[in-house]
């Protein structure tokens, strides 16, 4: 089972404050432990929301763009891991070992096509798959 | 004294899953440390199991400790020292030599200190002892999943479709065999290292294949076994990062597993590589597998080993957007290199398929026909299946149908049989009758 472990932003991460040497070392050790245990498939950090933007849609589908930063710090994301584990409990146990002081992690399973039920028609799936293919091809190119 | 409220049934079940998760994460290190100190993997595993039982008893009331691994290790350590004292007391009654007792008291302190020590090689030694050549292949698989993977006996039994009792006995016998043979808990060295590592890789690939190509039962795959084999492969790659073939095997497993979802059709039938919806291949695993293959190539001392070569073949498929765009000549070349390392009619058969894709069905059929008299392939269903395929491409439908039917009669997998009979039916009616 695949899970995303979402790192919520903090005031420090939103300020763009660089982590201390100790924190970097602890995080490096934690990541190494995850890799050596064979559970970490991916992971990365994000810059503060001041570097980002939002695209908001109204009910008619009109898009408006809002530049960062955004106020509700605790709802923002500052990084993520992707874990492959055998249960939610195992994902939680690994997440508990992260060397954070303050902050919050959110653990969410990846959805699988079955979750969408009948609304996700084979045609739609096909379209999405084509899109994903193109994206991958671009990444590999 | 008031008793705390009994946990609800569902809270207990949740807690049980937490304990299972912690056990998967911690047990190899615990069993490894205990084996290093007691010198007996069977005893070590029993002591570790005692700690697991204690967790199941105490955590529902106390909650999961902040450092569950250290908690389990502390309990196991106490049990180890208790059992040491018991055997020492027994000896005190029978042995009169004071000098020997003094020595043993020293041993007890050593044990306590040794169990507090973290030794990086413990898990690797545990891998090697679980895959020791003194054990049968089946026993190596069971011991590896149990001791290194931290899987419960009933889990392993279910995965391999054998009765739990059979599997439990297999593990008990394996532990006895290791004790009787006085197999030391150590790293193999010199020329022995390569052979012992091969045995480990073989066990992991057996586990993977049991999941990937289920040889018995109605399910075509059991993905949990594949995932377990990949997890163990990643752990091993972390333990011996300088070994090219470990990365090669990991790459092979990840690249093959990336196709798991696409291999099964909507009705549970198997879908051949050529017919798979490639957009359903798992890109995260593909990227992981390609990175592992790069590491296999970087660490290879000379020519690539058999796992890295097979991973190279899987990578040619993973990189191709369609069957037509596949580097078939490259695949044929990898098979040739494989056959040079390890001549085998099965590899020749695969090479024939690649050659037919690269250079046309007639070239492939020529290679396949050379294999018709090989005794080792006389009951191998893929020989007639491949031959049938090539004959269809050459428009020889009657011969093709007979081959597909023969293949269907040889396979043990029910779904595969259905697939082959379907291909036979596609070739039209029996010989001599109009087929349109």
List keywords for this structure.
heterodimer, A: 141 residues, alpha+beta, Alpha-Beta Plaits, 2 domains, four-stranded antiparallel sheet, two-stranded antiparallel sheet, 26% strand, flat, B: 436 residues, mainly alpha, 19 helices, 70% helix, 0% strand, elongated, disordered C terminus, YCII (chain A)
Account of the protein in words:
The complex is a heterodimer of chains A (141) and B (436). Chain A is of the alpha+beta class and 141 residues long. Chain A has two domains: 2-110, Alpha-Beta Plaits; 113-141, no CATH class. Helices cover 35% and strands 26% of the residues of chain A. Chain A is built from four helices and six strands. Chain A has helices at 11-15, 21-36, 88-96, 122-140, and strands at 2-8, 40-45, 53-57, 63-67, 77-84, 105-109. Chain A has a four-stranded antiparallel β-sheet with strand order 2-5-1-6, with helices on one face. A two-stranded antiparallel ribbon of chain A has the order 3-4. Chain B is mostly helical. Among the domains of chain B are: 9-120, no CATH class; 379-436, no CATH class. In chain B, helix 11 (244-257) packs parallel to helix 13. The longest helix of chain B is centred in the first third of the chain and has 30 residues, at 9-38. The radius of gyration of chain B is 26 Å and the shape is elongated. The termini of chain B are far apart. The interface between A and B is medium-sized, with 26 and 30 residues. Chain B: Belongs to the sigma-70 factor family. ECF subfamily. Chain B: Residues 28-88 form the RNA polymerase sigma-70 region domain. Chain B: Residues 129-178 form the RNA polymerase sigma factor 70 region 4 type domain.
């Amino acid at each position: 089972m695949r899970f995303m472990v979402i790192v919520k932003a903090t005031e420090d991460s939103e300020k763009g404050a660089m982590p201390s040497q100790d924190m970097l070392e602890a995080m490096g050790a934690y990541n190494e432990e995850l890799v050596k245990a064979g559970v970490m498939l991916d992971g990365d950090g994000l810059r503060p929301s001041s570097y980002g933007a939002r695209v908001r849609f109204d009910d008619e589908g009109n898009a408006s763009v809002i530049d960062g930063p955004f106020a509700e710090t605790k709802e923002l994301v500052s990084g993520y891991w992707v874990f492959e584990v055998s249960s939610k409990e195992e994902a939680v146990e690994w997440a508990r070992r992260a060397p954070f002081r303050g902050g919050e992690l959110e653990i969410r399973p990846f959805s699988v096509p079955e979750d969408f039920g009948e609304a996700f028609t084979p045609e739609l799936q096909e379209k999405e798959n084509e899109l994903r293919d193109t994206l991958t091809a671009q990444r590999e190119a | 004294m008031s008793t705390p409220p009994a946990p609800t049934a569902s809270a207990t079940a949740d807690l049980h899953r937490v304990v299972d998760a912690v056990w998967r994460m911690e047990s190899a290190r615990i069993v490894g440390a205990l084996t290093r100190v007691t010198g007996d993997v069977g005893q070590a595993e029993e002591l570790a199991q005692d700690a697991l039982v204690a967790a199941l008893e105490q955590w529902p009331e106390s909650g999961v400790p902040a450092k569950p691994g250290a908690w389990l290790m502390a309990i196991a350590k106490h049990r180890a020292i208790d059992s040491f004292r018991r055997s020492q007391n027994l000896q005190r009654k029978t042995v009169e030599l004071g000098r020997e007792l003094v020595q043993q008291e020293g041993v007890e302190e050593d044990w306590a200190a040794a169990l507090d020590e973290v030794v990086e090689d413990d898990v690797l030694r545990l891998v090697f002892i679980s895959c020791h050549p003194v054990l049968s292949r089946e026993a190596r698989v069971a011991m590896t999943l149990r001791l290194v993977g931290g899987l419960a006996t009933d889990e392993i039994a279910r995965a391999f479709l054998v009765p739990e009792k059979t599997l439990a006995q297999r593990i008990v016998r394996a532990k006895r065999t290791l004790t009787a043979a006085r197999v030391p808990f150590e790293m193999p060295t010199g020329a022995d290292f390569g052979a012992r590592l091969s045995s480990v890789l073989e066990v992991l690939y057996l586990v993977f294949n049991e999941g990937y190509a289920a040889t018995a039962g109605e399910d075509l795959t059991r993905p949990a076994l594949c995932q377990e084999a990949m997890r163990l492969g990643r752990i091993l790659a972390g333990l011996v990062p300088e070994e090219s073939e470990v990365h090669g095997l990991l790459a092979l497993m990840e690249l093959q597993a990336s196709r798991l979802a696409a291999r099964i059709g909507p009705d549970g039938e198997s879908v051949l590589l050529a017919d798979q919806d490639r957009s359903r291949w798992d890109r995260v695993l593909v990227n992981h597998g390609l990175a592992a293959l790069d590491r296999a190539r970087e660490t290879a001392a000379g020519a690539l080993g058999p796992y890295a070569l097979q991973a190279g073949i899987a990578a040619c498929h993973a990189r191709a957007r369609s069957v037509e765009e596949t580097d078939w000549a490259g695949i044929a070349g990898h098979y040739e290199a494989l056959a040079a390392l390890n001549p085998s009619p099965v590899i020749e058969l695969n090479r024939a398929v690649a050659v037919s894709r690269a250079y046309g069905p007639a070239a492939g059929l020529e290679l396949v026909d050379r294999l018709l008299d090989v005794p080792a392939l006389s009951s191998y269903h893929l020989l007639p299946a491949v031959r049938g395929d090539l004959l269809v491409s050459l428009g020889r439908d009657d011969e093709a149908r007979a081959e597909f039917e023969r293949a269907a009669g040889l396979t043990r997998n029910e779904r595969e049989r259905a697939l082959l009979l379907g291909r036979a039916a596609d070739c039209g009616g029996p010989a001599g009758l109009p087929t349109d």
